[in-house]
């Protein structure tokens, strides 16, 4: 069994490996893989995103061994190599420890342990559906990309202190748009024919406004640094909604990020703004109805057998119990109610049919039923 020194060295090696992978991101293909990972795991800490990328750059969705079984009805393939992520060790503090740490908090992080998780590609079982898959299909439509652009522009104009306006591309000297810190204004080339590129430009300039505005801590970054950050955020945001702008974005990033120091220093800030843009976009696509997934045939209640219907009910019960997000829990509960009603209707229909086919079986007399009451 490894001693404490061996465990400490192994943990340090994991972090160092992540560091080395980040420093190799001067290559556009490598940077694309990292940004793809960032888009998929935007709710993970920067540290765990780095660890996931270092161990498996192709990972798309990770979960623990038991979580794959209980929440997704999938099993980890034999021989699959685990990905290790860091989880905080939280301890309840004694009065003496509170005094020593000079804190009034009852609990504190006292260390980290490295937990094994597995990518979906390392598992087998029922399909894992994602809302992003349906958003991707919907946003491939020309009109829906335009709708999201208009919704995001309206949100910024109406709900923030930013002003977004459009001008002809011919007046921008070859640019697609710009952010003006002095007036807190974003200007976009309104006659850009590629609507996906137009939306990406709005994400790009919004990233500038958040990272490089007059009040930003990063406003004095060098131009190469700023452009690398803004385009990386835009690329991640477009990947999140299923629109691949890599042909444009990665060439743009490669033009500015010519050394390792620029990318390495920019990554943590890229993640912070990417999270914000992704959350905004998800909210807007939901309002626009673009996240309404088409009904999956496997989940069409009318087509499910009695066995599969009962199995679906049991699975949903488990998911409701395990859900921690209130909105997700409510949605799962609604699905559970739908399945319950379907089972109830089927049972009543079967009983009715059985009664009609067996008229000799009579209902108990009213008075006889009374004698059964306590």
3D architecture notes:
The chain has helices at residues 4-23, 28-40, 46-55, 65-72, 95-101, 131-139, 142-159, 195-212, 223-240, 246-256, 260-287, 306-322, 326-357, 366-371, and strands spanning 62-63, 74-76, 83-92, 107-119, 123-125, 163-167, 177-180, 185-189. It is α+β, with helices and mostly antiparallel strands and 374 residues long. The chain has 14 helices and 8 strands. Strands 1-4-3 form a 3-stranded antiparallel β-sheet. The chain has a 3-stranded mixed β-sheet with strand order 6-8-7. Helix 12 packs antiparallel against helix 13.
Summarize the structure.
It contains 14 helices and eight strands. The chain has 374 residues and is α+β, with helices and mostly antiparallel strands. The strands form three sheets. It has a three-stranded antiparallel beta sheet with strand order 1-4-3. A three-stranded mixed beta sheet has the order 6-8-7. A two-stranded antiparallel sheet has the order 2-5.
Comma- or semicolon-separated keywords:
single chain, alpha+beta, 3-stranded mixed sheet, globular, 374 residues, disordered C terminus
Structural class: alpha+beta
Overall residue-averaged pLDDT value? 78
Count all strands and give the number.
8
How would you sum up the major sheet? 3 strands, antiparallel
Any low-confidence stretches, pLDDT <50, length ≥5? Answer: 293-299, 361-374
Task: Please give the radius of gyration in angstroms.
Answer: 27 Å
Question: How are the elements arranged and paired?
Answer:
Blueprint: H1 4-23, H2 28-40, H3 46-55, E1 62-63, H4 65-72, E2 74-76, E3 83-92, H5 95-101, E4 107-119, E5 123-125, H6 131-139, H7 142-159, E6 163-167, E7 177-180, E8 185-189, H8 195-212, H9 223-240, H10 246-256, H11 260-287, H12 306-322, H13 326-357, H14 366-371
Parallel strand pairs: 6-8
Antiparallel strand pairs: 1-4, 2-5, 3-4, 7-8
Helix pairs in contact: 1-3, 2-9, 2-10, 7-8, 8-9, 8-11, 9-10, 9-11, 12-13
């Amino acid at each position: 069994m490894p001693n404490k020194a061996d465990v400490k060295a192994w943990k340090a090696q994991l972090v160092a490996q992540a560091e080395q992978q980040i420093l190799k991101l001067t290559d556009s293909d490598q940077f694309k893989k990292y940004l793809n990972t960032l888009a998929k795991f935007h709710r993970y800490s920067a540290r765990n995103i780095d660890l996931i990328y270092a161990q498996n750059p192709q990972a798309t969705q990770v979960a623990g061994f038991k979580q794959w079984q209980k929440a997704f009805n999938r099993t980890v393939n034999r021989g699959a190599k685990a990905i290790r992520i860091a989880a905080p060790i939280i301890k309840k503090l004694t009065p003496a420890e509170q005094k020593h740490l000079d804190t009034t908090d009852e609990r504190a992080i006292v260390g980290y342990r490295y937990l094994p998780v597995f990518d979906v590609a390392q598992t087998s079982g029922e399909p894992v559906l994602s809302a992003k898959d349906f958003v991707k299909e919907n946003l491939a439509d020309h009109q829906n990309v335009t709708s999201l652009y208009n919704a995001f522009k309206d949100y910024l104009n109406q709900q923030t202190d930013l002003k977004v306006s459009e001008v002809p591309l011919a007046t921008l000297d070859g640019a697609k748009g710009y952010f003006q810190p002095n007036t807190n204004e974003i200007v976009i080339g309104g006659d850009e024919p590629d609507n996906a590129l137009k939306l990406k430009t709005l994400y790009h300039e919004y990233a500038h406004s958040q990272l490089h505005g007059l009040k930003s801590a990063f406003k004095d970054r060098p131009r190469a640094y700023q452009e690398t950050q803004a385009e990386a955020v835009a690329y991640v945001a477009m990947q999140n909604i299923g629109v691949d702008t890599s042909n444009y974005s990665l060439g743009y990033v490669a033009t500015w990020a010519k050394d390792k120091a620029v990318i390495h220093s920019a990554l943590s800030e890229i993640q912070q703004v990417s999270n914000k843009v992704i959350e905004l976009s998800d909210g807007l696509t939901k309002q626009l109805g673009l996240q309404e997934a088409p009904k999956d045939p496997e989940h069409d209640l009318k087509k499910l057998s009695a066995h599969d219907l009962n199995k679906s009910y049991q699975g949903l019960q488990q998911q409701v119990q395990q859900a921690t997000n209130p909105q997700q829990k409510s949605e799962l509960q609604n699905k559970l109610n739908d399945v319950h009603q379907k089972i109830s209707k089927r049972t009543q229909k079967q009983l009715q049919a059985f009664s009609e086919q067996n008229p000799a079986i009579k209902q108990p007399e009213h008075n006889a039923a009374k004698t059964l009451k306590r």
